[in-house]
Amino acid sequence: MSEYFDKLPWFVKEYIHACRWSGFREIQNQTFKAFYSTDDHILISAGTSSGKTEAALFPVIGSLYNNPPESVGALYIGPLKALIDDQFQRMGPILGESELRITGWHGDISRSSKAKLLENPSGILQITPESLQNIISYSPEEVERLFRDLRFVVIDEVHAFMDSDRGLQLLCCLQRLEVLAHCSPRRIGLSATISDREDAAKWLSADTGRYVSIVYDGSTNDRRIRIHYNYLPKSDEETDSVERKKAVTRYYLELFRETHGYNCIVFTNSRQDAEVTAKSLRIVSEKKGYPDEVSIHHGSISKEYRKIAEERLKNPSVKNTTVATVTLELGIDVGDLDRIVQIGAPFTCSGLVQRMGRSGRRGNGQELILMCNEDEEEWWSTLDGVSLGLVKAIAMSELVLKEGWTEPPESNSMPFGLLYHQTMEYLRSGIGCKFSVLASDVLTMYPFRDIPKEQYRLMIKHLVNLGHLQVMSDQTILIGPNAERLVFGRDFCSVFSTKKEIVVKCDGKMIGSIQNLPQVEELIQLAGRVWTVVKISNDKSSIEVEECDGEACNPWRSGTPPTHTRIMQKILEVLSSDEDYPYIDDAARQRLAESRETARSIGMTSMFSERKGGFRMYPWLGTRQFDTLRRILQKVIGTDSIRSFQPYYIDIRTKLSEEQILDRVRDYAEEEDPIRLAYDEDLLKYGKYDRFVPESLLIRQFAVDRLDMDLDL
Question: How far is Cα 535 from Cα 531, in angstroms, rounded to an integer?
Fold first, then answer.
């Protein structure tokens, strides 16, 4: 053991001995050094099974035990209730008989447990951003008593917060808490392996004035990816396509061979794909004589069903395959996994790294099998004869394996919807204030640092006109009558929108939920099985079902994350080169050669390809820059002359030459204000509270945070 072992309290030492650790890992020793030798904030960036949680919590626990705080001493903030519950269970054996109290706090935690903390605040509080927001807003007078001796804030899954308004909300909460409680806690951020660690450190510090020590495990030598390619022909409506059935059967047999006998997760990019995959794989497994080998885990399945899947994965005596979406991407403990399978190229490189990181425990390397299916029934699976999914999968693998690259965070610099939310949260206690105080206390929060006071004043006037605020004769601002129902509602603390779904029950037990209300006797698919609807509740909020045979499809609507320009450029590099990739199978190698030949022959690798009456342009830009280019082309050539498939190509009907098109685009990008491109009213309101923001500010927000005039053409 290292020198830091002696600094830990006796019960942590007992835990370490019980786990038979031979020593600390390098990431842990580095963290301990930063913790004990500096007063810095600390950012720990490492893979899922690297031991970074213990690296952060062991010294925090030791500090609180050796010098008990007079209030809550440490906050652990996680993005998911399930992750908080999981960490709560993991902390029990570590704390042992220390009497150091740990309290969980979110919507599913009992009132009695919360009441004990309120009566005697101490120890460690595990909480979500929304619950922390509620404590600060509803009981600002209690914040100092609860947190006056707060010393540490541990933020888990920092990378999951950085790209969202939810992460900005968390920074607002922490800043407000520090002001109300007169404390200055040390922040410790836990993150997956990310390439842009300086930005993550800047986010973690957020104007606290304290330096951030970065502890990083950048090893990529133990990462392995294998890419398998499958071609699925289109069905013939008259014959139901025997060939397609054979191809689909071969694919699921291959998936069974790659997963049977292993503890593994099969990741998909959507809930619908997870349902189809789980059902089909379960059928193959049952035919092979292995029932109950396949589970499913996604956000529309009940907590109880998800828990069953998690417990099966953690059971070392049972080999289980769980088909999952992003819900198992974060660090919920699912035990030692043998391998990971990904169906189709994931949306982001950071997601690929995170999913791959779920394997590699027991000292083994991280292994991911990427199944690329070119399905002719999905029109987007090929692009002008090029196997889009395959080439993208190779490009992302190259970025991750050879360059260690992941997407940098792109949080909003003008989050006006969040500014509305924080303004109302500030006023929710019922004590009004003048505009100068609002501007001093709210507008100075880190997420609003780029918003001028004049724009905030415009927003306040707009809210007064809406009746969301009211101004008294002495200029005191209060919450207005038209906002009371919203602001004092139970969901106001969250800054992300959730769609209301139909609850699905069997024998009174909840299975999960779906978005669209079906009819009686209609078939639906959920939890990897098919059900027939037998009853619909009077208020149409729930349905009763029975399991049955058959085929069904109930798609869930959800957004697609943007693609970064670096990925698009790497796709172009893959198509333009003759490099061989040893991790792809023979079928993938042959299809890649065909795709390269096609891409070069039609001009895909040279930006412009001639079409009748104009060109097809392949700009190889990410989603944000691609959309900016499309909007510029509509301005300089004409809206009716532009058609696009984002972010891959733009069809241009024109008599202009290639160079003339590029000249017009470059001139516009250099001379014009991007605000002129923000004209889609529906697209302006992409945040939960944007509908209460003046349109002029939404246009500015869209131009700054959704467009990019820096086009490298």
Answer: 12
Dump pLDDT digits (tens) for 366-420: 889 999 999 998 888 889 999 999 999 999 999 999 998 999 988 789 999 999 9
Strands in 447-580 per DSSP E: 469-471, 477-479, 502-506, 509-514, 523-526, 529-536, 542-548
What is the β-pairing status of strands 321-324 and 294-297? parallel
pLDDT at position 250 is: 95
Does 680 score more than 70 pLDDT?
yes
pLDDT tens, residue by residue, 527-569? 999 999 999 999 999 999 999 988 887 778 777 889 999 999 9
Q: Above 90 in pLDDT, residue 682? A: no
Assigned token pair, 642: 């532009």
Spatial separation of the C-alpha atoms in residues 198 and 201, rounded to whole Å: 5
Region 106-119 average pLDDT = 83
pLDDT of residue 589: 98
Query: Could you tell me the CA-to-CA distances from 125 to 89, 131, 422, 488, 544 in Å, in that order?
Result: 14, 11, 23, 25, 39
- DSSP conformation class of 193: -
Query: Which pLDDT belongs to residue 259?
Result: 96
- Beta strands 74-77 and 152-155 are parallel
Residue predicted with more confidence, 524 or 90: 524
pLDDT of residue 361: 60
For 488-622, where are the alpha helices, taking DSSP H only? 565-576, 586-601
CA dist list (Å): 400 to 220, 544, 595: 8, 45, 22
**Amino acid found at 465:** N
CA 362 to chain centre: 27
Strand 186-191 with 366-375, pairing? unpaired
pLDDT band of 363, cuts 50, 70, 90: low
Helices 349-356 and 388-403 pack at an angle, to 10 degrees, of 70
Q: Name the phi and psi angles at 549, rounded to 5.
A: -90, 165
Predicted model pTM: 0.92
Q: For residues 295 and 507, is the Cβ–Cβ distance under 8 A? A: no
Give residue 475's region: left, alpha or beta (phi > 0; psi -120 to 50): left
Kindly state the tokens that stand for 352. Answer: 């690929």
User: Which amino acid is present at 192?
Assistant: A
**Backbone phi, psi, residue 502, to 5°:** -85, 125
CA distances from 610 to 375, 602, 603 (A): 27, 8, 8
Place of tokens 């640092």: 449
Q: Which of 230, 184, 235, 219 is nearest to 205 (CA)?
A: 184
Other CB atoms within 10 Å distance of the CB of residue 4: 18
Count how many residues are written for the chain.
713
User: Mean pLDDT score of the chain, rounded to an integer?
Assistant: 92
Distance CA 713, CA 663 (A): 10
The rounded distance, in Å, linking the Cα atoms of 116 and 78 is: 21
Residue type for 449, please?
R
CA distance 624 to 564: 8
Beta pairing, strands 264-267 & 321-324: parallel
Rounded to whole angstroms, how far apart are CA atoms 334 and 360?
12
Cis preceding-peptide flag for 647 (omega within 30 of 0): yes
Who contacts 324 (Cβ-Cβ below 8 Å, separation ≥6)? 265, 266, 267, 268, 274, 296, 297, 298, 309
Tally Cβ neighbours within 10 Å of residue 27.
21
Least confident span in 194-203, 326-335, 451-460: 326-335
Helix, strand or coil, per DSSP, at residue 611: strand
Which pLDDT score, from 0 to 100, does residue 219 have? 64
How confident is residue 490, by pLDDT bands cut at 50, 70 and 90?
Answer: confident
C-alpha 173/C-alpha 177 separation (Å) is: 6
